[in-house]
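Section 3.1: Structural characterization of target chains.
Under the original work plan, the team committed to producing a structural model for every single-chain target entering the pipeline before any wet-lab resources were allocated. The record below documents one such target. The sequence was received from the expression subgroup and is listed exactly as submitted; it comprises 150 residues.
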Amino acid sequence: MKNDVVPVQIRGILPANSGCALFVGNDEKVFVINVEPNMGAVIGMFLRETPKERPLTHDLIQSIFKGFNITVERVVITELRNSTYYARLILQQSNEVARKIVEIDARPSDCLALASAAKRPIYVTTSLFEQVEDMSEVLERINETGAENE
């Protein structure tokens, strides 16, 4: 699978009319995934390592993972269908006897939040990366005007 994916990062977060625009990409190309406003805020908090008064849902999930010796290995944004992105959360559980890898269908916003919280790699399938519109220039213009960028 490693040859079929492209490594990416969250390059910027911008509040938008209908939610929040996550700019995801690398030096070659950046594309936008629109998420709910609260998910954009949560992902931004994880990226900035902002202290929180109480655990958020993704903090709870991380605590559960830790209790069962599960780690987030990586996330892969897999496809775009009917204007909806799809993603896979790749988890690993290890103990003294065995190592198990589990791949779970999940919303890209949840995957990106968990990857940001755990400082784990984010990938996009090569076919999707070739399909999405490059928004690098838009992100550059936003950065020049001083909008929030990670």
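The chain has a mean pLDDT of 92.
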